[in-house]
Amino acid sequence: MALNYKKNALYIFVVGFLLSTIAFFFREQKLDVFPHNNSFKVAYYTDSSEGGNSALDLKIDSGKFASMNYTLGNKLEYPFLGMYFQNKVDSNYLDISNYEALVINIKANKATMIPINISVFCDGTSHYGKPNSYVSHIYDLKDEKINGEYEISLDKFSIPEWWYTENAIENSGKLKCTLEKMQSINIEQGVNAKAGVGDNITVYELYLKKTNFYYLYLLLFTISLVSAALIIDYVKRKKTVFVPYQTTPEIHSGNDVLENKVFDYIANHYSNPDLSLSTINADTGLAENKISAIIKVKYNQSFKQYINNIRMTEAKRLLKESEGTISEIAYSVGYNNVTHFNRVFKTETGIAPGDFRKGENSNNDAVK
Fold this sequence. Notes:
Helix content: 25-40%
Order of helices and strands: HEEEEEEEEEHEEHHHHHHHHH
Low-confidence stretches: 1-5, 238-254
CATH class of the largest domain: Mainly Beta
CATH topology of the largest domain: Jelly Rolls
Shape: rod-shaped
């Protein structure tokens, strides 16, 4: 029995260890963009290339923040500026199509809406070296006071109407542009802000996140594998725990036909808790007093004593040779009440079933 406990404890330990390990990996996976990824650069752009007079001063504290102090100009009808996070090698695009959300820790002094633009190179539409042809996927971050961490599902980013107009492309809904070739993430300002009014936007952290389903599948596979092993082990033990009682020379050795009929029947049905003289009578046709007489002559015991003797003999064997619990053994030898079984066993042997299994001496043995 102790061996069984050790095996179960080992299973529990292994399962617990595997679950803990997998749970560690089955957490959100991050693609750091800023500030923990040295392969990304932070830069800025303004409308000066188109004759505008918007001004931007970018300050970067590596590992802490990227901050832009800006003022939109008034020369253009639609002034614009922004800072962007881009791979240092311009031609290296990132596939972010399997990520779920963009997370940004950002603070604005005055702005209550900040467009976040994921710029994507789309084959057949975009042209290398022409930033305006890159497809803009934009989400307008809105808050009465923008300050803190915001998690934005990538499903909420969409291509704005102005992009179609600027690139002379009809918005027919047929443009298929996935996030397989991300060029940059831009923090922009434009028509949402007032010209001539200074403001500050600071980004403290920027990353993409996803759930790692690989480890989820591994977790399910591991649970299934260990569960199967436990079930197989349990079935094996169940198959070997209880061996049907067979009459032995010590219990019964008779040549009389009626004797054999009575004792063979009892040997095959002793595990039935409802076994009685009347049931034997009904199944064999032997009169109840005849059955009692055969048992009395052979063993000088009453029917009840003889049945109890068989059950106790088998119970002791199972306690020593099997890994079944005391409850399982009690039920297998014909007791439907474990408390009654324990009481009878101790009365017959002078020791509790659990102590008997451990090999402790009974009171009767000690007296002898």
